[in-house]
């Protein structure tokens, strides 16, 4: 694989992992730090990771790192208020979007952690 292709693939994977971590509740800065650490570890161990499993390996490393941080803080939450609104949308639309996010969060909280993770992973690649 040439360097340009590898760079594009890693960049895409980094964005997917960052969105996934943010949807799990990580702050944008924390998610970025976790992604950087994950990519660093991935490049260190690239020779020992099977090519077909590299993406899953990176998600797992990032998820474990995030869970370690959550255990250190003794809490895990998704701050809906921290989600920035993009564009110049009407206040009514922003309010409706916030209500939808809150409803989705309530439903996700009722799910078992594995189903919550599966849903977030499925839709993290599609912002």
Can you give a write-up of this model?
- By secondary structure, this protein is mainly alpha-helical.
- Helix content is 72%, strand content 0%.
- The relative contact order is 0.11.
Poorly predicted segments: none
Strand content is under 5%
Radius of gyration: 16 Å
Order of helices and strands: HHHHH
Largest sheet: none
Structural class: mainly alpha
Shape category: globular
What is the terminal-to-terminal distance?
A: 28 Å
| Mean pLDDT across residues | 80
Total number of β-strand segments?
0
The number of helices is 5
Helical content stands at over 70%
Give keywords.
127 residues; mainly alpha; 5 helices; 72% helix
Produce a short descriptive summary:
The protein is mainly alpha-helical and 127 residues long.
Topology:
Elements: H1 3-24, H2 28-44, H3 54-73, H4 91-110, H5 113-124
Helix pairs in contact: 1-2, 1-5, 2-3
